[in-house]
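In response to the reviewer comment on reproducibility (Comment 2.3), we provide here a single inverse folding case reported in full, input and output, so that an independent group could reproduce the run without further information from us. The structure tokens appear first.
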């Protein structure tokens, strides 16, 4: 038996929008997005943090459509090679040397977050989430660091691969165009 007074939801239509966000460790970003079904959202865009510029893409699952809906987010990013001397100078409080400087380093990261999104209007969504990030960093020019620190020019070194896990936090705003 169906209730004739129950509200009837209109048929779902694919939605398009733009997203801006800020978080750690990703930094700030802007993305275009598509929401092909009620329960999934896909985005791709650019990001900037204190280490450099990058590109990223992600997938969000929204299992319930409420005014405050839970989300499960997955995101991958690639940050292009950059010179990290300015950051290291700030952290150390003194200029870097050949032995302490890091040049031409890029990295990839993968993040997953649990969050909430708030939709006070059909066209605007505020969201936030917490989770974990896994960073995959490769330093190709390790040899010059070691040679300079050890004052030994004949040292041979392979590239350094680092894997780091860190907390992830993100807050943002989505505006839908349709």
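Designed residues, in position order:
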């Amino acid at each position: 038996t169906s209730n004739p007074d129950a509200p009837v939801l209109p048929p779902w239509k694919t939605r398009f929008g733009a997203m801006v966000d800020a978080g750690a460790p990703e930094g700030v970003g802007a993305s275009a997005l598509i929401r092909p079904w009620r329960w999934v959202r896909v985005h791709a865009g650019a990001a900037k943090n204190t280490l450099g510029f990058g590109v990223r893409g992600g997938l969000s699952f929204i299992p319930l459509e409420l005014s405050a809906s839970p989300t499960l987010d997955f995101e991958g990013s690639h940050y292009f090679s950059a010179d990290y001397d300015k950051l290291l100078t700030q952290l150390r409080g003194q200029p870097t040397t050949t032995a302490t400087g890091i040049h031409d380093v890029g990295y990839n990261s993968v993040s997953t977050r649990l969050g909430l999104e708030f939709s006070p209007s059909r066209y605007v969504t505020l969201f936030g989430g917490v989770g974990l990030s896994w960073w995959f960093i490769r330093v190709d020019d390790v040899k010059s660091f070691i040679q300079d620190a050890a004052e030994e020019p004949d040292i041979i070194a392979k590239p350094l691969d680092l894997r780091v896990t860190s907390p992830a936090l993100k807050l943002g705003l989505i505006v839908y165009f349709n």
